[in-house]
Amino acid sequence: MKTFYIETFGCQMNAHDSEKVVGTLLQKGYTQVERPDEAELVLYNTCSIRDKAEQKVFSRLQQFKREAGNGKVFGVLGCVAQQEGERIFERAPHVSLVAGSASYTKLPELLVQVEGGNRRVTGLSLDTDQTFDTPFTQRDNPHRAYITIIEGCDKACAYCVVPFTRGPERSRTSESVLREASTLAGSGYSEIQLLGQNVNSYRDPSSSGWDFAQLLANTGNVPGIRRVRFTTSHPRDFVKDIVDAIDDNPVLCNHVHLPVQSGSSSVLSRMQRLYSRDQYMRRIEWMKNAKRNIAITTDIIVGFPGETESDFEQTLQLAEEVEYDSMFIFKYSKRPNTSALQFEDHIPEEEKTRRLMVLQERQRAIQIRRNAEFIGKSEEVLVEGYNVATRQWIGRTTQNKTLNFCDSNLPAPADGDTLVGRYAQVLVTRAGPNSLAGERLAPAVPGVQ
Ligand code: SAH
Ligand code: SF4
Ligand code: F3S
User: Fold this and answer.
1) Smaller CB count within 10 Å for the chain: N or C?
2) Looking at the CA of 232, which ligand is closest?
3) Are residues 188 and 57 in the same domain?
4) Are 300 and 261 in contact (CB under 8 A)?
5) Does residue 370 surpass a pLDDT of 90?
6) Are residue 400 and residue 296 in the same domain, yes or no?
7) Is 100 in the pocket of ligand 3 (CB under 6 A)?
8) Same structural domain for residues 211 and 325?
9) 259 and 382, same domain (yes or no)
10) Residue 381 near residue 426 (C-beta atoms within 8 A)
C-alpha cells in the first residue's frame, strides 16, 4: 500500500496537521496522489465544529463504499475521529483507521497494523504533546508557514466541541517555536502564522515562562522573518501587551482576529465566554488607540438558544461600533457533549437564516466603508498568485486584506519570472467589500532580506 490521498476539512490547525501527516507518509515511502480513486490509502482529516462539517465526511465515505476491500483502505482523522471514536466503524464499516490529532506521529505504526490485516485500528489518546515535533512537515505554501504554539483548549464555551476533540491545552517551549521559525526563514519562508485554538493562553513550559505577548515579540525578531500573524485570540486572555508588541515592531502584522460571538452580555454569559460586552469593548479600545492601524476581524454565532430580537440588535450595534474589517457569521449548530444542549429555547432555522442575512448585509456596508479608506494609500503586499482571468497579481497586505494589482513591467508571469513570494509596494486605486485593487509602484524586492 504505497499511494495515498488526503482531503482536509476545518480550520488552519487541521490544515497544518495535514501537512504533518503528508510529511510523515512521504518520509515512510508513500506517494501522494490527487484523486481518491487512484489511491490505495484514502484519508479524511475531519472537522466537527458544526453539524454540516461532520456530515461531510460521512457523505464522502458513502461515495466510495463499494471500492473498499479491493486493496483500498479508508482512514478518518481529526476532530470527527476524536469525537466519534470507534462509533465510526459502525457508521462506516469500510473504515479501517480512526485517529485523532494527538496520534499523528504514531501513524506509521498504526498503518503497519492496518497492513497486517487489522480492520479496526485506532489512535485516540489525547495524552501527548508529541505533535509539536514534526521534522517531516510537508508545507503547502513555500512562502507562508504555520507553526503550532499551543494545542487543545481549556475553555468550555457552551456551544463548542473543540475541548472534546482536541483535549486540554499543551503549550510548546519557546525555544522550539523560535528554532522552527529560524529553520523556516533559512528555507525561504518569510511569513509565519502562529497557531492555537487560544494563542493568548500560551505559557512557555520552559524556565523562561514567556506569555504569548513575549513569544510574539521574540518571533518578530527572528532574522529573515518579515511577517508574523497569529490566530485565534480569546478576548478573555487578550492583554494590552499584545497591542504594544504590535505597535513596537512592524514585522508583527497589524491584524487581530478577536471572536466576539455575540454583542449581548446575557448571551455571552450563557455561552460561558467569560467576558462581558464592556470587557470586550475595552480590548477594542486598546487596538483603536494603537499607533498602527490594526485591522480587527471576528466570528459571530447567530441564533444561540434563547437569543432574543433585542440580543441580536445588540450584536448589530456592536458590529457598527467596532467596524470590523471582516466577519465570519455562523448559525448556531447543536453539538454533541456541549453544555448548550441543556437549553431548550431553540431559534427556528428560518429565523437564524434571517439574522445571518441581516448581519451579513450590515457588515458588507461596513467593509465597503472601511476598505474605501485605503484608496490613495500605498500598501506593501506579499504576492500570492496571479489571476489569469483578470490579469492581475494577487497580494495580501499586513492587515490581511486581498489587494489585486497590475504591474506595467511584469503584466504576467514570464520566462520563469514571477512576483509570487516577493513583496511589492502597491498604490490602492479601488476598493470593494472584500478586496482592494491597485497598481504596483516600485520594483518588487526578494521575499527574504
Ligand atoms: N478557538 C476559537 C474558535 C474555534 S471555532 C475561539 O475561541 O474563538 C471557530 C468558530 O466557529 C467560533 O469562533 C464560533 O464562532 C464558531 N462555532 C463554534 N462552535 C459552533 C457551533 N456549535 N455552532 C455555530 N458556530 C460555532
Ligand atoms: Fe471552542 Fe471556546 Fe475553546 Fe474557542 S475558546 S475552541 S470557541 S471552547
Ligand atoms: Fe473543526 Fe477541529 Fe478545527 S472541529 S474548526 S477542525 S479544531
Assistant:
1) C
2) 1
3) no
4) yes
5) yes
6) no
7) no
8) yes
9) no
10) yes
Of the residues 49, 83, 195, which should be mutated to test ligand 3's pocket, given the most ligand atoms within 8 Å of the CB?
49
Task: State the closest ligand 2 atom to the C-alpha of 154, by its place in the atom list counted from 1.
Answer: 3
Domain residue limits at 315: 144-372
Closest ligand relative to 77 C-alpha: 3
For range 428-438, the mean pLDDT:
98
Atom of ligand 2 nearest to the CA of 153: 3
**From the CB of 11, is ligand 3 less than 6 Å away?**
yes
Tell me which of 16, 50, 79 to substitute to probe ligand 3's pocket, judged by most ligand atoms within 8 Å of the beta carbon.
Answer: 79
- Model pTM? 0.95
Distance 178 CA to ligand 1 centre (A): 29
Q: Which three cell numbers stand for residue 326?
A: 471582516
Q: In sequence order, what DSSP letters do the residues of 166-227 get, joined into one string?
A: H-S-EEPPHHHHHHHHHHHHHTT--EEEEE-TTGGG-B-SSTT--BHHHHHHHHTTSTT--E
Is the same domain home to 328 and 368? yes
CA of 36 to the centre of ligand 2 (A): 32
Average pLDDT of the residues in 239-253: 98
Same domain, yes or no, for 205 and 189? yes
User: How high does pLDDT run on average in the chain?
Assistant: 94
297 lines ligand 2 (CB under 6 A): no
381, 417 contact by CB (below 8 A) = no
Q: 194 and 287 share a domain? A: yes
pLDDT tens figures, 92-127: 999 999 999 999 988 999 999 998 989 899 999 887
Give the total number of structural domains in the chain.
3
